[in-house]
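Please fill in the sequence for the structure shown.

STRUCTURE ENCODING:
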């Protein structure tokens, strides 16, 4: 019987959340197995029972963060304009309420070009871009936004803005809200 069959899933989740908190404060470079173990109150050697390597722990952290970002897949009622507004403000509220999550998300983004988690991040971002792009295409067809907008480029711009906003989530949350409102005015051509 392998060790993974006897693992306590609650403990494993607790370790992932503790690693997330440490990464939010210190980045991936500051993540130490002994610190995660200490935060949860276990022996550092026990960490290897749950995660054989630090990379496996980071992979679980990545999955955890993406699961917490499920707000990006939520559908909202209303017109495409209403749906985009709801999407951006759900994201803003999440940033305001959980700035550490966005610090870890930024770390994942920075790290994605340098390791094996890159495909996960690329898939996540492509899915997000595709959702916004389809929403914009629909809104342009229905006359909510000007037809000169390039849905793909606008979607990429929105993602870049929101990624940058995530970096400032704990420092300037009101600026993020104002920037989203300005973005919506620009898209509308007003």
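FILLED IN BY: designer on duty
SEQUENCE:
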């Amino acid at each position: 019987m392998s060790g993974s069959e006897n693992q306590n899933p609650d403990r494993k989740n607790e370790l992932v959340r503790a690693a997330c908190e440490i990464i939010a404060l210190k980045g991936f470079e500051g993540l130490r197995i002994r610190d995660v173990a200490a935060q949860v109150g276990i022996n550092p050697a026990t960490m290897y029972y749950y995660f054989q390597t630090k990379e496996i722990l980071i992979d679980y952290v990545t999955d955890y963060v993406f699961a917490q970002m499920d707000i990006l897949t939520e559908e909202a009622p209303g017109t495409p304009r209403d749906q985009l507004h709801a999407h951006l403000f759900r994201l803003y509220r999440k940033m305001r309420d959980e700035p550490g999550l966005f610090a870890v998300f930024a770390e994942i983004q920075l790290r994605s070009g340098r390791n094996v988690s890159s495909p996960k991040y690329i898939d996540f971002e492509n899915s997000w871009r595709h959702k916004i792009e389809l929403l914009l295409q629909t809104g342009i067809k229905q006359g909510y936004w000007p037809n000169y907008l390039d849905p793909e480029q606008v979607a990429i711009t929105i993602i870049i803005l929101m990624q940058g906003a995530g970096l400032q989530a704990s420092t300037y949350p009101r600026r993020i809200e104002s920037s989203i409102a300005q973005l919506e005015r620009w898209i509308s051509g007003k």
